[in-house]
């Protein structure tokens, strides 16, 4: 951004501190206070100007302005206004003092402040803390924290991160090797290496380290941190990495999480809006808009009320364009984020792997014993079936038949029931036959489960689709295409049949073709006379159902560049019903398939009641493909692990089996 100012609050033109001090005094005089006048003055002045108002107020009235504001105001509004009146370093010092005072520690507050501040801000914070509380900040943090978490906080507190933009390629390679050896290649983890490198190297240097780390190891540094570290130390290191990559993006994410779901984390919201209003609020707004497809302004507006809301909206500095549309700078941010995601080829990993020392004979006998006689040993069944790969399960089925002359699936059906039976029997089927059965069930009886049809057909590879077609024909003596034709209609049917052919192109991107494909857009964006919605759906279908994933990613990038719109939002706006849902699923799958499934899992468990069918279908079908990646996306987006969500939403043997498939707590 260079030296360009990116704050939302500016010096007020024609500023007169005495006039403002008098207006504030008048607003607080007598019975009640004029909150509107207070918020209007304080949110329209820069921090430097507010300090001058404090001085004038004391000179004119012999009183402390902050003390008077505290007396007159209450609650969140008071906290926000008083926060704005303090110099930034003193505001940070007060937040940290509150975080470590009393019983318990607010680790999230410590992490947010110490992971995000520059060297200069850190030095000012330490001095402000000493001045305000006559205490040593480092000593207080040491007294209130422990272990590696404490060590990293102390390193950050020194404010000695290198600031040289000239990067040594040799040192980058050395740091990549040191981090890899300290984590992935070591039994246990050498936390000191992580602390030294992430706590001291320059931002420019570390960005190159992260790029090289991905190329060398096949996984982003965040994945290694999650795998090697734990607790508050892990959260701190992840925050440091996020701030190295992009401090505004870190704060955009913190703001979103502070307001999403039930309840608002007001302390976090206030702290960020106050501390970033004169630094990078415009960047935060752009990234927020890009990442969450809604403006920061609209989210604050819907999530807060009264003078508190008005003050926050003034700090936000303006509403960005309507949902789905990017203002020009944000379109560029979106495009750059796409570029980065296209570079990051993350290896897909399942949670279920072939068992070592696999013995189908022993497993078949153990399963027979678990089902013989009175009662059933569900624990043994769960333990064996969730810890074998699908190929190994097929061997167990064959061995079971050879030994006992019985069909394992039939025996399991007679011994277990309900959600557990659906899950275990699903795991026992070859993947293509399982998907074929799910499609058949979605089309059986009265009504059609369109969501299941979309989920399966929009996300499977060509090879998987072809295998499903064969399995469907073998199991139900009817082609999948015929079944879809007789159970769906119109454009939705055409989309599903196109996907069910398994003929998606498999090459890379073609830039000229991508630019041509990106020009398929609604009339009001294209500035042409209103077109036929049917022909628009047909054109979208020919591109979304047939082009390769790498090519479509490029199309989406070009679409943003040409229109300032995100293709997903355009679909949601222009289309409806099952056609819209199918296209959105394809786009989300192309953008980030594990995230698509993470969202589906979250929705299957949120609110009253659980959608066990969707939960089971995804856990079964993704367990050997990308469930580990889905877990990472889940915790990243929803701030809780998939393991925790399952634990809170299911019970009994079904819970045990799901947790075994989940493969661990993140």
Automatic annotation (TrEMBL):
Main location: cytoplasm
Lineage top rank: taxon: Eukaryota
Pfam families listed in its UniProt record: Annexin
Region Disordered, residue ranges: 505-532
Basic and acidic residues composition bias: residue spans: 505-519
GO biological process, one term: mitochondrial calcium ion homeostasis
Protein known as: Annexin
Organism the protein comes from: Rhinopithecus roxellana (Golden snub-nosed monkey)
Organismal lineage: Eukaryota, Metazoa, Chordata, Craniata, Vertebrata
């Amino acid at each position: 951004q260079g030296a360009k100012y990116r704050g939302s609050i500016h010096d007020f033109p024609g500023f007169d501190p005495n006039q403002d001090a008098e207006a504030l005094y008048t607003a607080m005089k007598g019975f009640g206070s004029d909150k509107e006048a207070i918020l209007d003055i304080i949110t329209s002045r820069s921090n430097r100007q507010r300090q001058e108002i404090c001085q004038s107020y004391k000179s004119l009235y012999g009183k402390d302005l902050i003390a008077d504001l505290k007396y007159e105001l209450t609650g969140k509004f008071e906290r926000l206004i008083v926060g704005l009146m303090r110099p930034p370093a003193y505001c940070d010092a007060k937040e940290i003092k509150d975080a470590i005072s009393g019983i318990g520690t607010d680790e999230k507050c410590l992490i947010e402040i110490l992971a995000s501040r520059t060297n200069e801000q850190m030095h000012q914070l330490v001095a402000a803390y000493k001045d305000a509380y006559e205490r040593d900040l480092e000593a207080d943090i040491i007294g209130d924290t422990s272990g590696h978490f404490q060590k990293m906080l102390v390193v950050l507190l020194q404010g000695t991160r290198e600031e040289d933009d000239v990067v040594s390629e040799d040192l980058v390679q050395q740091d990549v090797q040191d981090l890899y050896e300290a984590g992935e290649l070591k039994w246990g983890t050498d936390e000191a290496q992580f602390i030294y490198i992430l706590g001291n190297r320059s931002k420019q240097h570390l960005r190159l380290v992260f790029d090289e780390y991905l190329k060398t190891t096949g996984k982003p540094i965040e994945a290694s941190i999650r795998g090697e570290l734990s607790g508050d130390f892990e959260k701190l290191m992840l925050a440091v990495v996020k701030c190295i990559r992009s401090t505004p993006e870190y704060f955009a994410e913190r703001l979103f999480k502070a307001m999403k779901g039930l309840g608002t984390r007001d302390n976090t919201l206030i702290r960020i809006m106050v501390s970033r209003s004169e630094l990078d609020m415009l960047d935060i707004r752009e990234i927020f808009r890009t990442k969450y497809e809604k403006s920061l302004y609209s989210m604050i507006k819907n999530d807060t009320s009264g003078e508190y809301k008005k003050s926050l909206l003034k700090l936000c500095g303006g509403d960005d364009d309507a949902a789905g549309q990017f203002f020009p700078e944000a379109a560029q941010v979106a495009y750059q984020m796409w570029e980065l995601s296209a570079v990051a080829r993350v290896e897909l990993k399942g949670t279920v792997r072939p068992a070592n020392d696999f013995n189908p004979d022993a497993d078949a006998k153990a399963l027979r014993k678990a089902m013989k006689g009175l009662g059933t040993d569900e624990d043994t069944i769960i333990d064996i079936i969730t810890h074998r790969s699908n190929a190994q399960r097929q061997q167990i089925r064959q061995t079971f038949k050879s030994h006992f002359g019985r069909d394992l699936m039939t025996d399991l059906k007679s011994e277990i029931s309900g959600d557990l039976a659906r899950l275990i029997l699903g795991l026992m089927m070859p993947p293509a036959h399982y998907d074929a059965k799910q499609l058949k069930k979605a089309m059986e009886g009265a009504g059609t489960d369109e969501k299941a049809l979309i989920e399966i057909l929009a996300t499977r590879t060509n090879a998987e689709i072809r295998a499903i077609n064969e399995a469907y024909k073998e199991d139900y003596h009817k082609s999948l295409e015929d079944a879809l034709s007789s159970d769906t209609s119109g454009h939705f049917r055409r989309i599903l049949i196109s996907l069910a052919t398994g003929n998606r192109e498999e090459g890379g991107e073609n830039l000229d073709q991508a630019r041509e494909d990106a020009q398929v857009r609604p009339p009001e964006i294209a500035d042409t006379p209103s077109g036929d919605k049917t022909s628009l759906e047909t054109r979208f279908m020919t591109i979304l159902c047939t082009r390769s994933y790498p090519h479509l990613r490029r199309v989406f990038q070009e679409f943003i560049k040409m229109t300032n719109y995100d293709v997903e939002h355009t679909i949601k706006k222009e289309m409806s019903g099952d056609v819209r849902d199918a296209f959105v699923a394809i786009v989300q799958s192309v953008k980030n398939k594990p995230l698509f499934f993470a969202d589906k899992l979250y929705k299957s468990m949120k609110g009253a009641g659980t959608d066990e069918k969707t939960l089971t279908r995804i856990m079964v079908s993704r367990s050997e493909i990308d469930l580990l990646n889905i877990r990472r996306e889940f915790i990243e987006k929803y701030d809780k692990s998939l393991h925790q969500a399952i634990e809170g939403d299911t019970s009994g043997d079904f819970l045990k089996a799901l947790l075994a498939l989940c493969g661990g707590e993140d």
